[in-house]
Design goal:
Keywords: Aspartyl protease, Hydrolase, Protease, Protein transport, Transport. This protein has 15 helices and 15 strands. About 45% of the residues lie in helices and about 20% in strands. It has four domains: about 80 residues, Phosphatidylinositol 3-kinase Catalytic Subunit, Chain A, domain 1 (Ubiquitin-like (UB roll)), CATH 3.10.20; about 100 residues, no CATH class; about 140 residues, Cathepsin D, subunit A, domain 1, CATH 2.40.70; about 50 residues, Orthogonal Bundle (Helicase, Ruva Protein, domain 3). The protein is elongated and about 100 Å long.
Length: about 425
């Protein structure tokens, strides 16, 4: 078998040797000394495999579970005549035994190990040299949550083991240790589970207006926000007899239902119904009713939404998503929608005040804009259009495009708001 040996701290000091798998570690050290230019004698050599010290020189490579072309690290022992392996073994044994007092005494008698520890924990070394065991335990506990749990377990073990409160605390600590081990296992073997995914959005048009729709196969019905319905000019079609409460992650007030609307995807037209919600963070959500009706397929491998057998549209990348839907966006509305997080009364009060202040500023801004814009056209022309169910902003915009002709503007708006053409029988 082939073994690659690297000298610790030297990227260029690498040696590959061909040896038998039944060779002992002691003989391997002799081979390394003879064939390498590491400058380390066999009796001063320490070998490490996958970060673990190979301490028993009588073991063979096969017994150490070394495979072909595995890498082992070689370095000079800090103490001669095997003192370093003994100290390392003692340290490991003490840690496994969970005996802080024995560890404390062992470190006090090992000056070279204290010098190594001082680089990262000078306060810990000072406590050891002063013989202050309590300070030593404080430093250990501060650096290791596991040590804190062990100390708590030791304290609880000295109390009445039949006390229900003691049993509950021990159960909580053991359960927390299991949770921590599970998380560490996930970080090591499945780190991808800690990532975040971009939500599925597509580009579409509703009544000729561009909308970024969220595709949600877990939603029962297709919904649209009140603001988006007003922007698309279909708010006048809302049947308020279908008002109610939408329940899911939280609750939302349903203003009513638009029984039929025209949805355009990739220049193809589809009929859909819409439930209009009063306070909805996203403009539009394509629910299961729409997806089932048109036999949609969410192809995550190709990153497309397939509608029937003819239409395919790509899911949007994060750069094209609405601001609140991006992973970098942290708006309160999105957080409240995505997760049902409890909030403190102080946080709730701050959020309500912030929302009220924002709405107040928005109303002032809208009023100012409307007043300044309405002066360009006669008020009678604007009212003539708004009486037909269109918003003031739509009336002003269409009057601008029609050069002030109210009749032409009204006809244009009514043409744009036409629903899906009837199918030929």
């Amino acid at each position: 078998m082939h073994i690659t040996v690297a000298k610790f701290g030297g990227s260029e000091n690498v040696l590959t040797i061909d040896i038998a798998s039944d060779l002992s570690l002691k003989d391997l050290k002799a081979v390394i000394e003879a064939e390498s230019d590491f400058g380390i004698k066999a009796d001063e050599m320490s070998l490490f495999y996958e970060g673990k010290f190979l301490e028993d020189d009588s073991k063979t490579l096969a017994q150490c579970k070394l495979n072909d072309y595995d890498l082992i690290t070689c370095q000079r022992s800090t103490l001669r005549n095997g003192a370093m392996p003994e100290a390392t073994t003692t340290l490991r044994r003490n840690m496994d035994a969970r005996d802080p007092r024995q560890l404390f005494e062992m470190l006090r008698s090992n000056s070279e190990m204290l010098q190594q520890i001082r680089r990262n924990s000078p306060q810990l070394v000072d406590a050891i040299q002063r013989g202050d065991f309590n300070k030593f335990m404080e430093q250990i506990a501060a650096q290791s949550p596991e040590m804190q749990q062990r100390m708590e377990l030791d304290r609880l073990a000295s109390l009445d083991p039949f006390d229900p409160e003691v049993q509950r605390r021990i159960h909580d600590i053991i359960n927390m240790q299991n949770v921590q081990e599970n998380m560490e296992h996930a970080v090591e073997h499945a780190p991808e589970v800690f990532g975040h995914v971009v939500m599925l959005y597509i580009n579409c048009k509703v009544n000729g207006h561009v909308v970024k729709a969220f595709v949600d196969s877990g939603a029962q019905m297709t919904i649209m926000s009140k603001a988006c319905a007003e922007r698309c000019g279909i708010m006048r079609l809302v049947d308020r007899r279908f008002s109610g409460i939408a329940k899911g992650v939280g609750t939302q007030k349903i203003l009513g239902r638009i029984h039929l609307a025209q949805l355009e995807i990739e220049k193809n037209y589809f009929a859909t119904s819409l439930s209009v919600l009063e306070d909805q963070p996203m403009d539009m959500l394509l629910g299961l009713d729409m997806l089932r009706r048109h036999q949609c397929v969410l192809d995550l491998h190709k990153n497309i939404l397939r509608i029937g057998n003819v239409v395919e549209t790509s899911f949007l990348p994060e750069s094209e998503l609405p601001t609140h839907a991006r992973l970098s966006g942290n708006t309160p509305d999105v957080d409240d929608y995505e997760f049902d997080r409890p909030e403190s009364p102080v946080q709730s009060t701050k959020r309500i005040r912030s929302d009220s202040h924002h709405e107040s500023r928005l109303e002032q801004s809208t009023t100012t804009t409307s007043t300044s814009t309405s002066s360009s056209f006669p008020e009678d022309s604007i009212k003539h259009i708004t009486k037909s169910g269109f918003t003031r902003e739509q009336a002003i915009e269409e009057l601008r495009l029609s050069n002030g002709d109210a009749t032409k503007a009204l006809v244009s708006l009514m043409t744009k708001s036409l629903s899906v053409p009837k199918r030929k029988r």
